[in-house]
């Protein structure tokens, strides 16, 4: 079974540019999550999809961030325009059930390291 | 306020030593879930363990063991006879049942270096 895959693994962009990150969850996983780790800080929740619907986007920092999950398969996270403080590692995770369900495990991708210069 | 605190930022041990990574959490929920994830140099977060709040039994898996104590709100992780391959960043995380977003609250991570 393929794991959670994220593209690209690294991205360096200039302030003001646009970047789109992609996440391919494990097949059959309805739940998809985006998280971000700013250097040295904790990994913070951004949003949660159930299939194609945004279940919770309370962690999205501002309206420069747009996440989509068309068709309930892969998801994209677009940052437009990027700012310096957006630099960090963006993780995607997927799970078959909600985290509170018995024996549920969330699988994470390797992350996309975004550097805004 | 931080829901999960990992006070140890970096730890270095010599191979074969035992090491304990501390995790303290904060929640008002009576039902919650605690996790440990390992982040090796390759970058992905690898699941290690999940513990439900109503199950305080400690767990051992090979060289890994976890000590869950609700009285002190701690969920510490011990590696016995550490090996170089254990070098990684370890994250403790909390998920609360009332949270319909089903999100993890992560600590800041502890970077473990095992010196050969």
Report what the structure shows.
The complex is a heterodimer of chains A (117) and B (116). The termini of chain A are far apart. In chain A, a hairpin with a 2-residue loop joins strand 5 and strand 6 (53-56). The model of chain A has no long low-confidence stretch (mean pLDDT 92). Chain A has strands spanning 5-7, 10-13, 19-24, 31-37, 43-50, 53-56, 65-68, 75-79, 88-95, 107-108, 112-116. In chain A, strands 2, 4, 5, 6, 9, 10 and 11 form a seven-stranded mixed beta sheet that branches. In chain A, strands 1-3-8-7 form a four-stranded antiparallel beta sheet, with no helix packed on it. Chain A is 0% helix and 48% strand. Chain B is mainly beta and 116 residues long. In chain B, 0% of the residues lie in helices and 51% in strands. Chain B is built from no helices and twelve strands. Chain B has strands spanning 4-5, 10-14, 19-21, 24-25, 32-39, 46-52, 59-61, 64-69, 74-79, 88-96, 105-106, 110-115. The interface between A and B is medium-sized, with 33 and 26 residues.
């Amino acid at each position: 079974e393929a794991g959670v895959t994220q593209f690209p693994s690294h991205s360096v962009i200039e302030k003001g540019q646009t970047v789109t990150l992609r996440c391919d969850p494990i097949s059959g996983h309805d739940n998809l999550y985006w998280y971000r780790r700013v250097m040295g800080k904790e990994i913070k929740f951004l949003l949660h999809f159930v299939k194609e619907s945004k279940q919770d986007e309370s962690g999205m920092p501002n309206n420069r961030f747009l996440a989509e999950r068309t068709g309930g398969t892969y998801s994209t996270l677009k940052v437009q325009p990027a700012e310096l403080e957006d630099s960090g590692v963006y993780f995607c995770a997927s799970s078959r059930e909600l985290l509170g369900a018995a024996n549920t495990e969330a699988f994470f991708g390797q992350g996309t390291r975004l550097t805004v210069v | 306020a931080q829901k999960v605190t990992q006070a140890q930022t970096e730890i270095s041990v010599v191979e074969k030593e035992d090491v304990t990574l501390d995790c303290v959490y904060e929640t008002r929920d009576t039902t919650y879930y605690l996790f440990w994830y390992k982040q090796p140099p390759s970058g992905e977060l690898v699941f290690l363990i999940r513990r439900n709040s109503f199950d305080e039994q400690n767990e051992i898996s090979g060289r890994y063991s976890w000590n869950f104590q609700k009285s002190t709100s701690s969920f510490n992780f011990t590696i016995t006879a550490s090996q170089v391959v254990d070098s990684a960043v370890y994250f403790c995380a909390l998920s609360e049942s009332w949270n319909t977003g089903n999100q993890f609250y992560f600590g800041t991570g502890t970077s473990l270096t095992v010196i050969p």
